[in-house]
Amino acid sequence: MQKKSLAEELRRNAYPGRGIVIGRSADGRSAVTAYFIMGRSGNSRNRIFVEEGEGIRTQAFDPSRLEDPSLIIYAPVRVLGDVTIVTNGDQTDTVYEGLSAGLTFEQSLRTREFEPDGPNFTPRISGLLERKDGAFSYAMSILKSDGGDPSCCCRFTYTYDNPKAGEGRFLHTYMGDGSPLPSFEGEPERVGIDGDIDAFTRTLWDSLNGENRVSLFVRYIDIESGAYETRIVNKNR
Questions:
Q1: How far is CA 37 from the centre of its chain?
Q2: In Å, how far are 8, 24, 32, 187 from 1, measured between CA atoms?
Q3: pTM above threshold 0.70
Q4: Which residues neighbour 80 within 8 Å (Cβ) at sequence distance 6 or greater?
Q5: Mind giving me the DSSP string for 2-20?
Q6: Which end of the chain has fewer beta carbons closer than 10 Å to its terminal beta carbon, N or C?
Q7: pLDDT tens sequence across 41-98
Q8: What pLDDT sits at residue 116?
Q9: Domains and CATH numbers, the chain
């Protein structure tokens, strides 16, 4: 698979929806993850990311304007020991609880499917990073309808051992804008990861469509020590 420019991929897609990036920093020292949300409706745009423990949570920017919290208020990031979980919905909790009970990432997600928001049937996308003995690996998952048919849930899991420095994978919910919104197709895209956490954060935020972007989370995790740096950017301030 050809490595793509993440900035270019974002700029050419006005509405990728929600997206997860996981990979390794250019200097090879850090496991990198990013998660962003976008919105077309007022309810979806009325959100910010806030830190919660070692993870983050979505929160209404203006609680008086919150219409329906289902599917938009959740914890996208949670940490369990040396494992970081990143998802686009409340399946973060499903994976966290499953791992705590001895299940694998894939086994935990067998209990879930795409979101019940027909006719879009938004895919559930999830990622898991694990540090162990000075190395790290990661996995990504997408649960989606069968070409818009909600009677069948298609489940795909991708695992990556010993990721290369300066690259990662990008998984997002939609191929672009539309009605209904077209679900992501294919395996996670191979993309470059350049610069330190501040440069990478700027690249992502500046490349997201200015009208539709809502919030961005970026974390660099030192592979040896587990120490991490986090950046959060919210359109609503």
A1: 8
A2: 16, 17, 20, 10
A3: yes
A4: 96, 99, 100
A5: --B-HHHHHHT-S---SEE
A6: C
A7: 999 999 999 999 999 999 999 999 999 899 999 999 999 999 999 999 999 999 999 9
A8: 96
A9: 6-234 (3.60.20.20)
